[in-house]
Amino acid sequence: MNLPEAGELLAKEAARYTAMGWMRGSSGNLSVRLRDEPLRLAVTASGLDKGELTAADVVEIDSSGAAVGPGVPSAEAGLHARIAAVSGARAVVHVHVHAPVLAAERWPDGVQLRDMEMLKGFGRSAHDDLVTIPVVPNSQDMVVLGDSFEAGHRADTPALIVARHGLYVWGADLTQARHRTECLEWLLRFIMAV
Amino acid sequence: MNLPEAGELLAKEAARYTAMGWMRGSSGNLSVRLRDEPLRLAVTASGLDKGELTAADVVEIDSSGAAVGPGVPSAEAGLHARIAAVSGARAVVHVHVHAPVLAAERWPDGVQLRDMEMLKGFGRSAHDDLVTIPVVPNSQDMVVLGDSFEAGHRADTPALIVARHGLYVWGADLTQARHRTECLEWLLRFIMAV
Amino acid sequence: MNLPEAGELLAKEAARYTAMGWMRGSSGNLSVRLRDEPLRLAVTASGLDKGELTAADVVEIDSSGAAVGPGVPSAEAGLHARIAAVSGARAVVHVHVHAPVLAAERWPDGVQLRDMEMLKGFGRSAHDDLVTIPVVPNSQDMVVLGDSFEAGHRADTPALIVARHGLYVWGADLTQARHRTECLEWLLRFIMAV
Amino acid sequence: MNLPEAGELLAKEAARYTAMGWMRGSSGNLSVRLRDEPLRLAVTASGLDKGELTAADVVEIDSSGAAVGPGVPSAEAGLHARIAAVSGARAVVHVHVHAPVLAAERWPDGVQLRDMEMLKGFGRSAHDDLVTIPVVPNSQDMVVLGDSFEAGHRADTPALIVARHGLYVWGADLTQARHRTECLEWLLRFIMAV
C-alpha cells in the first residue's frame, strides 16, 4: 500500500468512527502499515476533524513515530508505531469511546471478560477463555506509554485501554481492527451495564 | 424468491440493522426461506461487515444449515434452519443488540412481558396476555442450541434469547420479522429501565 | 391542504421520527387537519413501516376516526380526531418514545415539570409555571381513551401520555407539534435522569 | 467574513448539531464574529428548526444583541454578544445537550474536571490542571445572564453552563468552538457516568 491509498482508507474509516461519536472534537487517530523493513506507518494528521479528513490528511512515520516526509502526525503516532512493532499489527485504531474509559475507572488493574459470544469477534473464544484487557495510566510521553503497553502485551489480546483517555485496538487490516474495536466496545458497554 | 433476490433483500435489511448498531463487527445474520420441500434458506455469508453486504454475499442452505452451492454460510445457519423448520417462519433475524442479553442476565429462566402496547407489534395482545421470551444457554453446537430452542418453542412467541450472545426473532417475511424485532427490543429496553 | 399534500408532509415527518427511533416497528401515527366543518383529518395508514411511507399512505377520517374514502387508518385515528376536535389542534403526533412511558410508570397521576428553559419550546414559561402532563391508562377503545383525555385536558398543555403505550403531542401545524414533541421528550428524559 | 458567508457556515454547523440531537425543537443558537470595531456578530434567526436553516436565516447584531438590519435574532443574542465582547471569541455555540444540564444539577457551584485526556481538546492540560466550568442560574434577562457570566469568566475556560437550560462554548472559529463543545460534552457525560 502506498501513502495516497492509505490516506484514502484512513479518511473513510475515520468518517465512520466519527459518525458513531467515537472521535469527538479532533480526538483519536488511525494508522496502517506501509512497509515492514524499515517499519513505516501511515497515520492520520494531527488536529483535524476526523469526520472531514481527505486522502491527503495523512503522514508517513517511522518506528519512533517521527514524520518521514511532510505533515504533522498525531501526537500519539509513537504509540501506534510501538504497537505495530511489538504486535506485528498492520492497522491500529485509537478512539475516545466512553465504555473502555469507564471500565478502566472501575477495574484499573485490567478489565476481565469471559463467556460472551462477542469475544469471537475480538479473536478469542466464546467459552472458558478469560480475556483481560490491559489498562495503563495516561501519559503524554509516548515512550512511557509504549513501555507500559509492552510490559502488559500478550499476543492473543489485541487491545489496550489508556485510563482517563481512550482505547487502542489492532489487527491485520483496518477492517479487522474495526470489527475487533466494535466487538470490544460492545463487551465493555455490556459489563458496565450488568 | 430466488437466491439473487434474497441476497438483495438480505443486504438491504442488514445495512439497516448495522446502522442501528445491532450488527457490530461482523456479528448477526439474517435468513429468508427460498423453498419449502425440501427446505431451503438464503442466509447471509459468514464473516463480512453486515453494513457492506452485496446481493452476492448470500449462501443457500438446507435444513441442517449446510451450504447447498457456493459460499460459506454463517456459523449459526443451522439454528436459522431449525427455527424455520419448527416454527414455519419464512424469515429469521439474529442480532447482537444489548437489551435482550442484559435481560437474560437478570431473568435467565425467561423474560416476562405483559400489558404493554408494543406487544401488539410483536403479534400479541396489549392487555392480560403474559408473554415469556425463552432464554437458552449459549453454545457453539447448533444442534444443542436447536434442541434448546425447540424444547421451549411456543407458536405464539416468535423470539428466542441466547444468553450472553444475542436475539433471534422470526416472522412471515423480513419486514414482519424486523417489526417484531424492533418492538421486542423496545420492550426489553423498557423493562430494564423501569 | 388537500389529501395528497397532507400525505407528502406526513410521510416526510414520519421518516424523521423513524430515524430518531421513535416509531419502531410500525408504531406511532401522525395526523393533520384537512377541514374544520365538518372536521376532517389526514392520518397515516395502518400497519406500515413509518420510515417508508409514501404520499399515498394516508387516509382521510372524520371526527369519529372512521375512514372517509379509501384506505385503513391507524387504529388510533379516533383519538387523533378527538384531540383535534377538543383542542383545536391542526396536527397531532403520536410516537412510541421511551421517556414518557418510563415517566408515567414513576408518576402515574401526571408528570410535573417546572423551571426548565425547554418548557418554552413546549409553549409554556421557563420560570414559575408548573406544567403537569396528564397520564391516562392504556385502552384499545378510542372512546374510553378520548374520554380520559378530555377529562384531563387543559388548553395550555398540548400533550398526553398513555401509560405503557406512548406520547401524544399537538399544535398548530406539524412543525410546531414536532418542536413541542422534541422539547417535551428532552424534559421527560431529563427528569428521569436527575 | 460577510453576512451571507456567515449564514452559510452557521446553517451547516447547526445541521450538524441538530443531527446529534443537541438542538431539539428550535432550541440553541450559533454566532460568528463579523467585525471588531464596532462589534458585529452574525447569529442564527429565532424560532426556526435548526436542522433546516438556510444561509439567509441569519441576523446581524450589535454588542447589545440588537438586530442591525433585517430579521429577528435569537432571544439569547445578547449573551452571545456579551461572551464575544468579554472573551474575544470569534464564534459562540449554544446547545441544549443533556450532560451539562444534568451536571449543573449535581454541582450547582461549578463542575470540576481534571486529569482527562479530553481536556486537551477543550484547550487545557490532560494532567494536574483543575478546570472548573462555571454554572449560572437561568434567566430571561440577557443582561443578568451576561453579568453572571462575566463575574465568573476566566480566560482559560471557554464555556458556561446555564442551569436548567444549556451550554455555551466559544473559540477562535466555529470549528474550534465545535471541537471544544464536543470534548466538553464527552467529559461531562463521563463524570456523570463514573
From TrEMBL, chains A, B, C, D:
<dbReference type="GO" id="GO:0008270">
    <property type="term" value="F:zinc ion binding"/>
</dbReference>
<comment type="function">
    <text>Catalyzes the dehydration of methylthioribulose-1-phosphate (MTRu-1-P) into 2,3-diketo-5-methylthiopentyl-1-phosphate (DK-MTP-1-P).</text>
</comment>
<comment type="pathway">
    <text>Amino-acid biosynthesis; L-methionine biosynthesis via salvage pathway; L-methionine from S-methyl-5-thio-alpha-D-ribose 1-phosphate: step 2/6.</text>
</comment>
<feature type="binding site">
    <location>
        <position position="94"/>
    </location>
    <ligand>
        <name>Zn(2+)</name>
    </ligand>
</feature>
<keyword id="KW-0479">Metal-binding</keyword>
<feature type="binding site">
    <location>
        <position position="96"/>
    </location>
    <ligand>
        <name>Zn(2+)</name>
    </ligand>
</feature>
<keyword id="KW-0028">Amino-acid biosynthesis</keyword>
<dbReference type="InterPro" id="IPR036409">
    <property type="entry name" value="Aldolase_II/adducin_N_sf"/>
</dbReference>
<keyword id="KW-0862">Zinc</keyword>
<comment type="similarity">
    <text>Belongs to the aldolase class II family. MtnB subfamily.</text>
</comment>
<dbReference type="GO" id="GO:0005737">
    <property type="term" value="C:cytoplasm"/>
</dbReference>
<keyword id="KW-0456">Lyase</keyword>
<keyword id="KW-0486">Methionine biosynthesis</keyword>
<dbReference type="InterPro" id="IPR001303">
    <property type="entry name" value="Aldolase_II/adducin_N"/>
</dbReference>
<dbReference type="Pfam" id="PF00596">
    <property type="entry name" value="Aldolase_II"/>
</dbReference>
<feature type="domain" description="Class II aldolase/adducin N-terminal">
    <location>
        <begin position="8"/>
        <end position="192"/>
    </location>
</feature>
<protein>
    <recommendedName>
        <fullName>Methylthioribulose-1-phosphate dehydratase</fullName>
        <ecNumber>4.2.1.109</ecNumber>
    </recommendedName>
</protein>
<dbReference type="InterPro" id="IPR017714">
    <property type="entry name" value="MethylthioRu-1-P_deHdtase_MtnB"/>
</dbReference>
<dbReference type="GO" id="GO:0046570">
    <property type="term" value="F:methylthioribulose 1-phosphate dehydratase activity"/>
</dbReference>
<dbReference type="GO" id="GO:0019509">
    <property type="term" value="P:L-methionine salvage from methylthioadenosine"/>
</dbReference>
